[in-house]
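ok here's Oxidoreductase molybdopterin binding:
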Amino acid sequence: MRAAAPPGRIWAMAIVSRGFQGRRRSSEHRLPPGQYETRDFPVLSAGPTPRVDRDAWRFSVVTEGGERRSWTWPQLMALPAERPVVDLHCVTKWSKFGTAWQGVSLDMLLADVETEAEFALVHAYGGYTTNVPLKDLLDGQAWIAYGYDGRDLTPEHGGPARLLVPHLYLWKSAKWVRGIELMVRDSPGFWESAGYHDYGDPWREQRYQGD
Ligand SMILES: Nc1nc2c(c(=O)[nH]1)N[C@H]1C(S)=C(S)[C@@H](COP(=O)(O)O)O[C@H]1N2
Ligand SMILES: [Mo]
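and the structure:
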């Protein structure tokens, strides 16, 4: 019998579609341990904001064998864009729910790259680095994001483009991203070398080494 959906089903669908506007769960359940919710979008940068010209901008992937693939800005723009809506969690304890981005999935950029590497060191214009296991950049978990809230990503927040890997603390989402170095062995980035956790899962509160 498929004549009518049971009332329970209709109610569930209403909840689900509300979720796409950004209130999927009550805020306690969206908030990892030790975090608080903010509506602002704070800017956290370890140094000055680099101004990167789109004409000169490149994004490169370099394998453990030294093979390089690079994309210019028009080449990035020509790739299919996704519009992830995600919660952000900064290690300084603020979380921001339902942020709306536009960017290219790393699945797309890494699809033709042949590698045995299990680790990635992400490099940014300005010299910032951060390490992420390669598998955390795949399967719809990470993007090269160039749009935020329907507009171009501003330089303060990492424009022209930043990494977005929202299931890890936000220091992993390198602003002004310029490339990914694939590595057979893990190597710490900027904050990881300064005592922050190698992996940085907010739900396991992996803030510092040893957490
Ligand atoms: N290149 C670069 N990326 C960076 C940083 C940085 O200093 N340089 N700071 C990180 C940290 S600690 C955080 S919390 C987020 C902050 O992103 P936002 O300024 O857009 O909020 O960017 C991350 N990415
Ligand atoms: Mo941070």
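+1. The longest strand covers residues 94-105.
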